[in-house]
Amino acid sequence: MKRRHFLASTGLLTGGAPAQAQGAPIGDGQDHGSFADPKPLVPLQARADRIIHIAVCTRPFRALGPRIQAQRLGRQVVVHNYGHGGSGWSLSWGSAQQAVALALQAHKPHQRDRRMAVIGCGAIGLTSAIVAQRAGFQVRILCRDRPPDVPSASATGVWSPASRICTQEHATPAFEQQWQAMARHSFHQFQNLLGLAGDPVEWTDGYLLSDTPFNQSGAADDDHGHEPDYPYLQRLIPELRPRSQTLQPHEHPFAVPHARRYAQLLFNLPSYTELLLTRFHRNGGTIETRHFESPREWAGLPERSLINATGYGARALMQDHTITPVRGQTARLMPQPGAHYGIRWRGHNLSVVPRRDGTLVQAQDEHDFGNADLTPDRDASVAAVQRLAQLFPA
Ligand SMILES: Cc1cc2nc3c(=O)[nH]c(=O)nc-3n(C[C@H](O)[C@H](O)[C@H](O)COP(=O)(O)OP(=O)(O)OC[C@H]3O[C@@H](n4cnc5c(N)ncnc54)[C@H](O)[C@@H]3O)c2cc1C
């Protein structure tokens, strides 16, 4: 397995990448002068006593790719929309668009009943519900948990449409086409959400750091040995890959010799979720707490159209053992005014995301794949924060 998806999933792949990616050190590999001249960067206060929260959740990974499929169950049509791995937020709009199209296909033209039940209130359920409302459905969400107590709320919140979305062997031409459609549609939807109060979606700068030149492979690669091979899908959407720029040592404050600045699309999950909930309710949507033990229980619902957006919960609910848990943990540092930039330190298993509700520090563990343990490992987060501190020597 490769941890190189850590970078590749966001289009930040460097040396050691597959041939197609090698020509693209970061973004499209060209130096772009389109960045505004930044003010001197405020050093991040990377100290364990600034950790205010540690979140753990499991990515609902399917080697086959997400299940977006209609199924007739008695008088109902259920469209499954689950299994988005590490890309659920990023692909949410495109995936919802495809799911709702399937629901509309199954909806007979003479059928007056426009009621729909969406099972699940995470990234996929909420977005599917809004897209269904726009298509004319009257939507009710039924879910065991609602935000902020859903796994989606513990995600990082960056544009990562190719992160653990399927394995290399299942990246068929048909899948690649479906993925491209989801990624492009989602990306364009996110651009319509910029500039809103609370910054639900925003573009920020990030810094890719390395001890060795970016065109050198080897120890600096973020490879890992315990996951399957993932396809480098970002090559299919070159126009959406982040722009980047090489920096000279005097142009950045980090204690590393090599740095590139990139642009990153970021989702501030608390305010973004709030925006989705507000829009859903404003369109007449309702949310009810329900826990389903089996899909047979859906037969008792009055709605004939259903979307099943139960994420990792689908593994137990649908007995779908094609879903593999991939554990992820983030530590949130107290928000630091003025320090609003991301970091990825190549070869050091460290990623920092400048969310408005705090600076997220993330590291991967070699035992994440297949691991559904939601117990926080504080020591791992403290170690990641200490690694971050090394970039800012006193
Ligand atoms: C550490 C980490 C970082 C991540 N970072 C990113 C990122 O930066 N960008 C990105 O795009 N993606 C990211 N992801 C992936 C993303 O979080 C997931 O793909 C996404 O959350 C899946 O959303 P979902 O709506 O399918 O599932 P969930 O959020 O799990 O929602 C499922 C819903 O279904 C309900 N439910 C489940 N079972 C039942 C049942 N039996 N009966 C009733 N209700 C039920 C739940 O209560 C919940 O409401 C990350 C994941 C992790 C773990």
Question: What report would you give on this structure?
Answer:
The chain has 394 residues and is of the alpha/beta class. It has two domains: 5-58 and 198-268 and 325-389, D-Amino Acid Oxidase, Chain A, domain 2; 62-154 and 270-323, 3-Layer(aba) Sandwich (Rossmann fold). The chain has eight helices and 14 strands. It has helices at 5-8, 19-22, 88-106, 123-134, 173-191, 269-282, 314-317, 378-389, and strands spanning 51-62, 67-73, 76-82, 115-119, 138-143, 201-210, 244-247, 258-267, 286-289, 305-308, 323-333, 342-345, 350-355, 358-362. An eight-stranded mixed sheet has the order 1-11-14-13-12-6-8-7, covered by helices on one side. The structure holds flavin-adenine dinucleotide. Flavin-adenine dinucleotide binds at residues 57-60, 82, 84-90, 119-125, 143-145, 150-152, 155-158, 160, 290-292, 309-313, 317, 328, 330. The site of flavin-adenine dinucleotide has 41 residues, from strand 1, helix 3, helix 4 and strand 11.
